[in-house]
Amino acid sequence: MMNTKCYKTWVFDCDGVVLDSNRIKTDAFFRAAEPYGAQYARQLVDYHVKNGGISRYIKFQHFITGILGRESVDEAELSQLLSTYAEYVKQGLLSCDAAPGIDRLRQLTKDSNWLIVSGGDQEELRSVFRERGLDHLFDGGIYGSPANKDQILSGLKADGLIQTPAVFVGDSRYDIEAAMRAGLAFIFVSDWSESDFDFRNANLKLPSLSAIANYLQS
């Protein structure tokens, strides 16, 4: 049984964990790439789903060079793809469901600090969480791309913002791999995940944040 006082820091992915936004992101990748042809857009979506948690910058760079077969990335083209994608995503993030039970889980872990570490754009995330009134839950801060999760976690540990023992709550293969590389425990939440990874090395596998709160109270 997990001790509610065990973890000094709780780190959360955003999409599929705090917000029900995985499908929003998947649809936005397709729509941003669709002008190039539906077949290429579907390839980008496949790459996105298989590489959950990796930033949009890396995914669109792969789209240009790996899918479209360009020799190099045109920065203006990349910027336009990112802008189109962001337009589709922002409204969805403001309107999608937030995780039931998040306030109860916060109360149960009130002596720990909470952080968001996401593959989403950092400024976009901070804006969305502020507008939705969720930012106050994450007293340790909200962090995202263009830095990747390994870089973010390493920097936060070096700065003392992640105090161990710490746990990462995520829904993608990259989440658990980044958590293990950073020396964090890992809880997999499944309800909104798009991943087919088995997460056998997770410390705990539960459907949702509400289920984590129930587990801590049991």
Number of strands: 6
Structural class: alpha/beta
Integer-rounded radius of gyration: 17 Å
The assigned CATH architecture of the largest domain is 3-Layer(aba) Sandwich
Alpha-carbon distance between the termini? 9 Å
What is the CATH fold-level name of the largest domain?
Rossmann fold
Strand content: 5-15%
Helicity, in percent?
Answer: 40-55%
Query: How is the main sheet built?
Result: 6 strands, parallel
What is the top-level CATH class of the largest domain?
Answer: Alpha Beta
Question: Would you tell me the overall average pLDDT?
Answer: 94
Walkthrough of the structure:
With 218 residues, the chain is an alpha/beta fold. The chain has two domains: 9-19 and 98-217, HAD superfamily/HAD-like (Rossmann fold), CATH 3.40.50; 23-95. The protein has nine helices and six strands. The protein has helices spanning 22-33, 38-50, 56-67, 75-95, 102-108, 122-131, 149-158, 173-181, 209-217, and strands at residues 9-12, 113-121, 141-145, 166-170, 185-189, 204-206. The protein has a six-stranded parallel sheet with strand order 3-2-1-4-5-6, with helices on both faces. Strand 4, helix 8 (173-181) and strand 5 form a beta-alpha-beta unit. The model has no long low-confidence stretch (mean pLDDT 94).
